[in-house]
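DNA polymerase I
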Amino acid sequence: VEILKKPVVNGKLLEGDRYKHWISPQQIKKASLKTTFEKVCKHLKQWEWGDEEMVDYMAAFIMLYPFHKFMNYRPWLYLLGGSQSGKTTLIESFIMPLYSNLVMKMDKSTAHSTAQEIGNTAIIPIFDEFEKFRRLEEILELFKMTSSKGGGVKKSGTPGKEPLRFEIKQMPFFASIYTPTSIKGDFAQDNRTLIFKLSKNKKERQAPKIFTEDECKELRGNIISSVIENWNAISSTVKSIEQQKENIVKSLGNKITSRTVNNFCYTLALIHIAREGKDKTLKATVPEWSYDDIQRDDGDRVLTDILHARINYEGKEHLIVDLMYSAIEENNEEDKQILRKNGITPANSKGEQIIAFDSKQIKKTLFKQDDYYSKLHIGDVLERLPGAKKNQNTHFGQGDTRRSTQVPFSVIKEVARGGGVSDVRDLAEKQESTKEQKAQHTESPQKAKQKESTLINDPLKHYKVSVEYITTKEQTVSAFAELLTTNKPIALDIETYSKDKGYGDKGGLDPYLSEIRLVQCYSGGEKIYVFDLQKVTLKDFPKEFWKRQLVCHNALFELQHLRHKGIHPKKVDCTLLIAHTLSGKTIKWGMSLKKLCEKALKINLSKEQQVSNWSVETLSKEQIEYASIDALVTFKLFEKIEPFLKKKEKALSYETKKDAQHSLTKMKLSGLYINRNKHQSLMDQWKQEQEESESKIKDILGEINPNSSKQLNVWLKENMDKQTLAKWKKTKTGKLQTSQDVLKLYKDQIPWFKDHERFKGAGKNFSTYGEGLLKQINPITGRLHSDVFLAGTVTGRLSSAKPNCQNFPKDKSFREIFEAPKGKTLVLADYSQMELRVASLISQDKTMLKAYENGIDLHKKTASFVAGVSETEVTKEQRQQAKAINFGFLFGQKAQGFVNYARDKYGVVMSLKEAENAQRKFFQTYKGLKAWQEKIKKEVVKNLKVQTPLGFVRYFEKGTNQWSLENEALNLPVQGGAAESILKALKHIEEKLDWKKAQIINCIHDEIIIESDDDYVEEAGKILEEGMMQGFLDVFPKGCTRDLVEVGKGKNWQEAK
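Structure:
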């Protein structure tokens, strides 16, 4: 057959006398290279690859197998993958059947036996799990391609006789779980090595298809035919690639040599020809995943596992990473001794803090029960870390000097931040930070007294102002004649009291349960006016007054009470919001009027009268003066800090929050209506679920209290194996922790876990959203009126309390209890994928921006890249996984932490390797986002601040740990931009909505809910959609609004959703 006379000689595989036929002429039928290539790629996509591009390269290598003897300098092919990655299945179910007799799987071979089997032949050897071989270095040395002919030579034989000579020109296929480095010739950095990586298969993914013998014959024939037919084109393309090698080497720097290009030329040529039409530009580049970073991955993983390891010493459990920090930063000798016993010691090398690792001892102690790690493996991979030095003499104690791998402590800290240990360290640092902050805010009595002596204790005397107590209509007219003569803003404050003692403390704060007793006003003159509303009324106040610029501290409080009384002031500034905007701190951090007066005005503001009885017929002089001083200092505080808004370029951020006050005031007063019958049914359901779960737990454990950690400890200690108990998280007193987060780690070993999870969940729902919610219902309106805060978060997002509407369960049955009363309908709108949209605009990631411009669901787009399918083929499960991937890596999750994040928040179960694969593909897809993240992380470390699109800035103290800085840098601009858009939207909606027919009743992150008259629903929906779109454009004028806002309606929250 003429076709076989080209590169393949008569279908014979082996040269010389020893040969086998691996293909017959009858099998060869003309086939398209492109179609054949697609078939191979499609089959390979059944596995989880570390990079989408790997599929093309692996397909090209497989198709070029029969022709490898005609190509010089072929690279060594590496396939990495841990247990359950499908690595062996790929070899045994596809490659070997496809090229029967052309490939040979070799188990536990020696260099000599390998040479005899394949020397002077074209057989391709496949070494599976090769790192376990006893003569590893000999095997690798055999395939060192050092000669100009691209092959090695092996000589062996009986002494006294002429040695046998075996030429080795093959492309060996090494299937392994890691890449060794401590091999003669620096094997892992060999510039002829191409490394592929498989991740653990997802559980929902079906097992790869097994090819039948006939299917293998057909595909094999198609491959031979298509490659031979295109051999001239491949050869000419190879020459084109070779012409570009100088530019490639120059662009990649010292990562590769010029000879590397030859290793990939045939593969690149085949891919280019097969993919022509999709990508007509010849990209003569070596894939980044084939070198450099891949070499370091395993080092990071091993080091992360070491840092995560827990050891018991004298009855106390220790985390290795904590011991390291303690040993180096606190010079703790006891912790150093514990580390040394486990093969780890801190040291100093030429002025640099390092950690030395004895891989042999680490294997004996930390990884004794772990078959994955060998001492060779541990040492090899640690050497890949930046700055690591191998075979160093290190002092481990008196008379104990060992050969070890030394790693800079700075590198360890970097890996700790990126490998999941950051969760442990960050928690400890947060706890320590909280202690420091408490210490700062908890002064000693002596220091407090000393500080008080330097403050102004009598503001009235200091500012030389008097108080005029207004009790008649005539006095009121005279007072306002004076107040309105000035163009300055007027400070306003109120004092309230509960209508009924039965309402308790909240009575004085709730507009529906309280009355306003005093209104205090000050505009910078010589008098503060205090109006007693038991003597005069708000109707006596001139309308002109409510049109003037007013200033309050925590203006939402005053606005809610005034609006409830039918008063609607338009221009109201808030010193709390100004302080929040200028400092970047929340209301929890010294934003009270008392604290701000101390800091800005050096005034000691007494609050003794705050809890006095404001309902008495005759108020005391102390009460009146106390009330007046609040108005005085609010005015003085505004004068002092307001100018800094323009100086610091923060006016726009402040105005955005200020404008949202009016709509939030109305929202607070409107409240949420609850169907009591549905709520009671839901409570009964939770109670029943809790009782049933408790009964099932007792069937397994006997008469036990599921809430008793002590009783659960007894069962765990009696039933869990020693290895598990050793790793189990413990309390400070040494008891096993029994929180759901800890139990979840061992759920497969705990037969009662699911029932216990249901028991705890139902119990929490019943107490928090059952009885707890009932207590929050207003006795006057029968509705929920949540307190809303504009300065409650560092990102600018709204927060709420009593109840916390921002954190309501997403359960459908729970949302159904929030209904529209008869004659009303709920209209709901939310921003679609708001945080991702904001990220796309801030980072200017072209892929993300284009997706939104074309109306593409970004979750589906990510899923298609990660799963290797088209967007139309993306399943519901794949989209859910992509949702976790998008939000997790958008906000700086590392692979280790992402595994827990995806599972707990989205119900997506992924292995660490799958998470690493997803992370890699995410940033390969959204390169602009990655570039922005790297840039802003550097900026925040340098400048100790980060800001939102409208200029709200969060500042950080010197010494703030880098992980926290970088985390905030990724969060604040995105979440802040989304928050600013919703606040702008609230302003537009408030201005256009007919509040007699419709009211905003809730705002949760990116969602706004309106309760509308049935005949006003369409208009309300239109105002809602347009307002939210305009709010977005106010912050992002060039933003794409296609599919931005989704509007729904219904008789309950779930139906509208």
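The chain has five domains: 2-202+230-290, 296-424, 452-648, 786-845+928-1057, 856-925.
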